[in-house]
């Protein structure tokens, strides 16, 4: 019998959505448990490291969103075929995580500093990364790694899905290869269906 | 013929040392290229994502330190034996990266805020993580995962090796299981030899 999957996270995309994309892509049924902010303090001590998302697979619990995505990628056929390809996938994901951390730093910055930080982010940080990532997709035939769909592509599209809400603009709009990649992922039948039917969340 | 390995990084431990531990553990000869700060602006545009460390394996270049460590773990016999064990290793490493990011934020904070941030770090952030990690090592027979040495253990010991210099104190001093684990790694013959013979760097 297949194990049961349960994802516990806030009612937002953020760190949860890449996991939800992976599960949706693999047609894996899962309980999509969404915790209201006010219930979190009570639940926090019961999670492995006081953090969410947490994925339960049968009786076992996992934490750390990227580690969970990598695990699921192996179950749903989105991992690399050898060690070097996995390294390229991993380093792409880690680079996208660097962008996501910069976005989180922006969101949680003191109000007085936000405007200045946003300017640096828009003019320096984001173009620095996105120019290189756009070039990488161009060189890899429309995907991040070796001309084929991997979890690096799904992770990126899910990150953009959430980031466009945080940033109030789609950050890949002016990067043609990244934009085409995100559209390609969003048009995968199961991802399209997931995005059309998922709970509405603001970020 | 085995490929040649070349690691390019600053003359510090920080993000480079976990990679150096992995190479030393596997008895892999490598060129340990250390770039003076003043040479970095010229080199930066030639690196894959404007960042170091970069590991060259033969003609191929890799970036992102954790991705590189995971790749090397497979070469030197420190990876997990199945997907779930690898997930536990990965989530441990990602948790230690969260600590390292908190330390970096502290180091690069504005002078005016450092004292207050250090207090929060010492009284809240660090105990929050280290209590849980110490418990994890206790539950896993003196290692992070499943009573055996994995790259999560080497990565942690290398991170502490550098963090103790940043923090001017050994952060695991009061955590008996973590301290024993770090000592165990530092006493592995090849790590012991690496630490005794490596170039002296301040952090």
Automatic annotation (TrEMBL), chains A, B:
It comes from the Eukaryota. Residues 3-80 form the GST N-terminal domain. It catalyses: RX + glutathione = an S-substituted glutathione + a halide anion + H(+). Residues 82-203 form the GST C-terminal domain. GO terms for molecular function: glutathione peroxidase activity; glutathione transferase activity. The keyword Transferase applies. It is an enzyme of class 2 (transferase). GO terms for biological process: glutathione metabolic process. Its EC number is 2.5.1.18. Keywords: Transferase. Belongs to the GST superfamily. Sigma family. This is glutathione transferase. It comes from Gryllus longicercus.
């Amino acid at each position: 019998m297949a194990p049961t999957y349960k994802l516990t996270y806030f009612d937002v995309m953020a760190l949860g959505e890449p996991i939800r994309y992976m599960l949706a892509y693999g047609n894996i049924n899962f309980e999509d448990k969404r915790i209201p902010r006010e219930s979190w303090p009570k639940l926090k001590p019961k999670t492995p490291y006081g953090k969410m998302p947490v994925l339960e697979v049968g009786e076992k619990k996992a934490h750390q969103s990227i580690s969970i995505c990598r695990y699921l990628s192996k179950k749903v056929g989105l991992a690399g075929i050898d060690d070097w390809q996995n390294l390229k996938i991993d380093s792409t994901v880690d680079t996208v995580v660097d962008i996501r951390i910069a976005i989180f730093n922006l969101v949680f910055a003191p109000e007085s500093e936000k405007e200045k930080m946003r300017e640096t982010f828009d003019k320096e940080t984001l173009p620095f990364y996105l120019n290189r990532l756009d070039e990488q997709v161009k060189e890899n035939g429309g995907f991040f790694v070796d001309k084929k769909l991997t979890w690096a592509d799904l992770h990126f599209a899910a990150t953009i899905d959430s980031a466009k809400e945080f940033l109030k603009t789609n950050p890949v709009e002016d990067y043609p290869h990244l934009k085409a990649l995100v559209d390609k992922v969003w048009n995968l039948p199961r991802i399209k269906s997931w995005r059309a039917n998922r709970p509405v969340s603001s970020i």
